[in-house]
Every structure is written in C-alpha cells, then in structure tokens.
Write a structure and sequence with these properties.
Elements: E1 16-18, E2 21-23, E3 30-32, H1 33-41, E4 59-61, E5 65-66, E6 73-74, E7 79-80, E8 84-85, E9 92-96, E10 100-104, E11 109-111
C-alpha cells in the first residue's frame, strides 16, 4: 500500500482516495495529487508574454510606469537587471538606475 499525503489544510494523516481525488475525513477538504504538487512548488511568476521569471533574470519594462509619490516615470524599454521575486501584489523587487529600489508587477515587464 502506498503512503498517502497528509491533508494540506488540517495536517490530518487519515486521508483516503476517492477516485482521482484525495479526501480528508476530519475537515472534508478534497484535492488532487497534481494540485498538491503545484502548491508545494510555490507560485509561478510570469511576465506579460507568459514566460516564467526566476530570481536573477533581466526584464524590460513594456509600459510607462509612474513612480508613486514622485514625479519620476520609468520609461518603456528600461532594462532591469537581477530581479528578485517576492510574494504579494507587486511580485518583483529590483533596483532601477536613476530611480532606485522599486517593486514592480510582473504584468508590466517582459523577459529580456
């Protein structure tokens, strides 16, 4: 008999299979092994074109971005080197020449 994974919600070890789904009898949570593997891998950050981004990548800004709280604008085509992925709404942490440290949304960049 194979070892079934514990419930991702309540950590109960009494999970059982129901067809292709796994079920926890204690909290009633249902999930598939594919969903659990995806959750364990962590969130995937993608650029505007759908390419997967990773720490250390270089990206290019695809839209003029106003810097909140100042009159600066990050222009289209600005290249940003050595990005760092973080959790949250703005999922890229970087340093832009002439502007300084910033957080960007991945939907406004493309992989360089």
């Amino acid at each position: 008999m194979s070892q079934l994974p514990s419930c991702p919600q309540c950590s109960s070890e009494y999970t059982y299979e129901d067809g292709v789904q796994l079920v926890c009898p204690e909290c009633g949570h249902e999930w598939t092994e594919a969903e659990q593997a995806e959750a364990e891998a962590g969130p995937v950050v993608r650029d505007a074109n759908g390419n997967e981004l990773q720490d250390g990548d270089s990206v290019t800004v695809i839209k003029d971005l106003k810097v909140k709280g100042s009159s600066l604008v990050v222009k289209v085509g600005t290249k940003v080197k050595s990005i760092r992925l973080v959790d949250g709404d703005h999922d890229i942490d970087c340093k832009i020449d002439g502007v300084g440290a910033m957080k960007l949304k991945s939907e406004f960049v493309k992989k360089a």
